[in-house]
Write a structure and sequence with these properties.
The complex is a heterodimer of chains A (501) and B (314). By secondary structure, chain A is α+β, with helices and mostly antiparallel strands. In chain A, 29% of the residues lie in helices and 23% in strands. Chain A has helices at 2-26, 56-62, 114-125, 162-165, 229-237, 253-257, 287-296, 299-307, 336-346, 361-376, 388-397, 429-440, 444-460; strands spanning 36-41, 71-73, 79-81, 84-89, 95-100, 140-147, 150-155, 192-198, 202-207, 220-225, 243-244, 262-277, 312-313, 351-357, 379-385, 403-408, 465-477, 480-481, 498-499. In chain A, the strands form five sheets. In chain A, strands 11, 12, 13, 14, 15, 16 and 17 form a seven-stranded mixed sheet that branches. In chain A, helix 7 (287-296) runs antiparallel to helix 9 (336-346) and helix 12 (429-440) packs antiparallel against helix 13 (444-460). The longest helix of chain A is centred in the N-terminal third of the chain and has 25 residues, at 2-26. Chain B has two domains: 2-73, no CATH class; 89-313, MetI-like fold. In chain B, helix 1 (2-29) packs antiparallel against helix 13 (279-307), helix 5 packs antiparallel against helix 6 (127-141) and helix 5 packs across helix 8 (174-208). The longest helix of chain B is centred in the N-terminal third of the chain and has 36 residues, at 87-122. Chain B is flat. Classes of the chains: A alpha+beta (501), B mainly alpha (314). Chains A and B meet through helix 1, helix 5 and helix 11 of A and helix 2, helix 3, helix 5, helix 7 and helix 12 of B.
Chain lengths: 501, 314
């Protein structure tokens, strides 16, 4: 484009002059480092209260930036101390004693102490609680403030997962006086203070000077909401946005890879993407039919075709980066002949199945590829595209479906297979006992063993078609460092983010 | 004249009532529960139930309809389920983007269309006329979102004259605000200007063939004088009608352009409201837009009647 070359040339000239002038002016003065950032997000959070909604965007803005819990997820998914500097478990595993950090203040200047913890946990587990992850608090029988910096939590039975549960965004510590306005003006203890929210456009947060830990390097950060993938691309290219931690269009990523101004950050998420099957309904109540479908699927084709190569094949409902992961992809390898034989054996030829697809690209594009693969083995599919709200109503709540594709993004969520009323309706008493035992086991070696056993059981039962672990593909200005590579939880933690020059 | 205005007003009120019933019924019938959408896949049924109770979703439909209508009559549009702020505030914020954008686009389109249409009509049959007609045909055929992306590529990505999108808010000043709305307004104005120019041309050609123009010429006016003094004014009536229609279209119909430029306008608010099943936002907003359209029609009717006495007898 000749026009743009001319324009760019002219611009360089003026830029040269202005920067020369600026240098002259600044001579002798300290070189000021850029300390503001604009972060692009595809979806806007509906509100900013992480204890009152499940939308990922709420946690992305608030988690570790504005709000903190007793514990927190590290970038690698490990559980680290946050507002609690340490904790002890009683001999029988039912009493957790958290020691809180001294000198923690909320953004409104009030002190965070044991009473706030008691309030937060009791509020989350209350009868009329609207916490989206109420199950995290289910085992709590009592929360007691021993002294201003000590909290004792009593559980009905031992729960080795409790510190993990307390790291979720839904378990952050809030103050009684300010929680009612958290939806619009969140007040937490994190390194950033909420400054402004122009609904539909952006949220701004700025450095909190009285933060208990190391202060953030950035002075302000703006989260900008850009839902259209092409607009997101243009905004990055034009430099309006510095980083897009979860870039919405994998097909456009190669253009950033070839541009030295940008860095493409590919990591893993906790999202097991599965072809869920209705285990309670014929013909999918027959394990042979489910096995046949699993063999009819070519995972790599789906990853290449729907995700442009981003994603790791999985053979069970577990994240591959987890140390306890067992690679069971061989059990359901791509084998159309075996699939046909299994279908014949089950007497289930000429099948027509209904496939309900929610809006994300992995589902819509993946669904078309799977439909073609199933046709190869003689299974016809009727595809229906649904909005999320419809999907939740019809598939998730109404269980009115045969097949659907969805990514389960909660960390360590294999326990959903122990809920017979969960939408894919897998009912296996042995598995349920195993998960019950896992919940009360605190010995790491035994937990690993049980996790592996659980993965194997659901793979052997071919409960769902296990497709791939959703990748996190982010694009950032190459001069930014400190961003999370992986997404152990849905967060855009800006605590350690800084410009390198 | 007064009786005419009163009957028109009664029909306006009736239309609004019917619209409110239809809007409420249609939106409540769409499957999808706001509470389960908000709490997501891992939520316990008790938590969803508690939220439904808190949002008032467990009341009976007629009761909720009456609540909604009486609230609106009192100026209370309810509170958004997801944003947890009054719908009126949300709408007011968005109006400050959508209204100026619509006005900006309309002014641009009128400024472009009227002279072009005038020239085309005056030089009817000439090369100029044909090329104008060709260009406007192209302007109508081009999808505006595609044109918008082209504008972004040239003026934002390559030249960097404008931001690729977003809106800084009027607090940032008049110029930054107008600058942010410029590319979207141009993208919106192009097809509208093309339509308007064609309407202008044919209306003018129509009036130029009228007897009173011949009379005007006969009494000694030049062609130009006759066109400007007599033909133009009469030709403006259909043009004004189109401008009125375009304004209501631009106000609500900019959803795609708002997405391309990620502007926080009314169109995107409706869109978000629908996906999030924020029923109260969708209902109130659609109602408001219906009201705006009906009101514009009402005002246009009254204006016609004021101008043309023949219409009052109807």
């Amino acid at each position: 484009m000749v026009l743009s070359q001319d324009g760019a040339g002219g611009r360089h000239m003026t830029k040269l002059f202005t920067s020369a002038a600026a240098m002259a002016l600044l001579a002798g003065a300290a070189f000021a480092q850029q300390d503001t950032i604009t972060v692009g997000m595809q979806l806007e959070p509906p509100n900013l209260d992480p204890t009152g909604g499940a939308a990922a965007a709420i946690d992305e803005v608030t988690y570790a930036n504005i709000f903190e819990g007793l514990t927190r997820f590290g970038p690698d998914g490990s559980i680290q101390p946050a507002l609690a500097s340490e904790w002890e478990v009683s001999e029988d595993g039912t009493v957790y004693t958290f020691t809180l950090r001294d000198g923690v203040v909320f953004h409104d200047g009030t002190t965070m102490d044991a009473e706030d913890v008691v309030f937060s946990l009791n509020r989350a587990r209350a009868e009329d609680s609207t916490n989206a992850q109420k199950a995290l608090f289910a085992g709590i029988t009592d929360v007691e403030a021993v002294d201003p910096l000590t909290v004792k939590v009593t559980l009905a039975e031992p729960n080795g997962n409790f510190p993990f549960n307390m790291a979720w965004g839904d378990a952050v510590i809030v103050a009684e006086e300010t929680i009612e306005q958290a939806a619009t003006t969140p007040i937490g203890t994190g390194p950033f203070v909420f400054t402004e929210w122009v609904q539909g456009d952006h949220v701004t947060i700025s450095r909190f000077d009285n933060y208990w830990g190391d202060p953030a390097a950035l002075s302000t950060a703006t989260f900008k909401f850009i839902s259209d993938a092409n607009a997101a691309f243009a905004a990055m290219m034009a430099g309006d946005v510095d980083v897009f931690p979860v870039f919405p269009a994998p097909e456009l990523v190669s253009q950033f890879e070839s541009d030295p101004r940008f860095e493409v950050i590919v990591g893993s998420t906790e999202g097991e993407t599965i072809l869920a099957m209705n285990n309670a309904q014929a013909p999918l109540d027959n394990v042979k039919v489910r096995e046949a479908i699993s063999h009819a699927i070519n995972r790599q084709d789906i990853i290449d075709g729907a995700m442009f190569g981003f994603g790791t094949p999985i053979g069970t409902h577990f994240a591959p980066h987890n140390p306890d992961y067992v690679d069971l992809t061989g059990m359901s390898n791509y084998d159309p002949d075996a699939a046909k034989a299994l279908l014949a054996e089950a007497g289930a030829e000429d099948l027509t199945l209904r496939m309900m697809l929610p809006p994300p690209t992995y589902a819509r594009r993946g669904g078309e590829i799977i439909a073609a693969q199933l046709r190869e083995v003689g299974i016809e599919t009727e595809i229906t595209n649904l909005e999320w709200a419809q999907w939740l109503e019809q598939v998730f709540k109404g269980k009115d479906f045969d097949l659907t594709i969805v990514s389960h993004t909660e960390p360590a969520d294999i326990n959903i297979y122990a809920r017979p009323d969960y939408y894919f309706q897998y009912d296996n008493a042995d598995f349920q006992t195993l998960i019950d035992n896992l919940g009360v086991e605190s010995d790491p070696a035994k937990r690993t063993e049980m996790n592996k056993q659980a993965q194997t059981i659901i793979a052997e039962d071919f409960v769902n078609g296990y497709l791939f672990q959703l990748a996190k593909v982010g694009v950032a200005n190459a001069k930014i460092e400190g961003l999370w590579e992986n997404a152990p939880t849905q967060a855009i933690d800006l605590t350690d983010v800084r410009w390198t020059e | 004249m007064l009786r005419f205005a009163v009957t028109r007003f009664i029909s306006l009120a009736l239309s609004l009532l019917v619209a409110s019933v239809v809007i409420f019924a249609v939106i409540e019938v769409i499957p999808g529960d706001p509470a389960s959408y908000m709490l997501g896949m891992n939520a316990s049924p008790e938590a969803v139930e508690a939220l439904r109770e808190r949002l008032g979703l467990n009341d009976s439909l007629p009761l909720r309809y009456v609540d909604w209508i009486t609230g609106m009559l009192a100026g209370d549009f309810g509170q958004s389920y997801t944003y947890k702020v009054p719908v009126a505030d949300l709408v007011a914020q968005r109006l400050w983007v959508s209204l100026p954008l619509a006005a900006y686009a309309l002014i641009l389109s009128t400024l472009i269309a009227i002279p072009i249409g005038l020239v085309a009509a005056a030089k009817r049959g000439s090369m100029t006329d044909y090329s104008i007609m060709g260009v406007t045909q192209l302007g109508i055929a081009l999808p505006n979102f595609w044109f918008a992306m082209l504008l972004v590529l040239v003026f934002s990505v390559s030249l960097r004259w404008f931001a690729a999108g977003g809106f800084p808010g009027w607090d940032a000043g008049l110029w930054p605000g107008l600058k942010a709305l410029t590319l979207p307004a141009v993208a919106l104005a192009l097809p509208q200007a093309s339509i308007l120019a064609r309407v202008m041309r044919s209306a003018l050609i129509d009036t130029l063939g009228q007897d009173y123009i011949r009379t005007a010429r006969a009494k000694g006016l030049t062609r130009r004088q006759a066109t400007v003094r007599h033909a133009l004014r009469n030709a403006l009536i259909p043009v004004l009608t189109i401008i009125g229609l375009q304004f209501s279209f631009l106000l609500a119909g900019a959803i795609i352009i708002e997405n391309v430029f990620y502007l926080p306008g009314l169109g995107r608010l409706i869109f978000q409201g629908i996906t999030q099943r924020d029923l109260i936002v969708v209902e109130s907003l659609v109602m408001l837009l219906v009201f705006a359209v009906i009101l514009v029609t009402f005002l246009v009717d009254i204006a016609y009647a004021a101008v043309d006495p023949r219409l009052r007898k109807r």
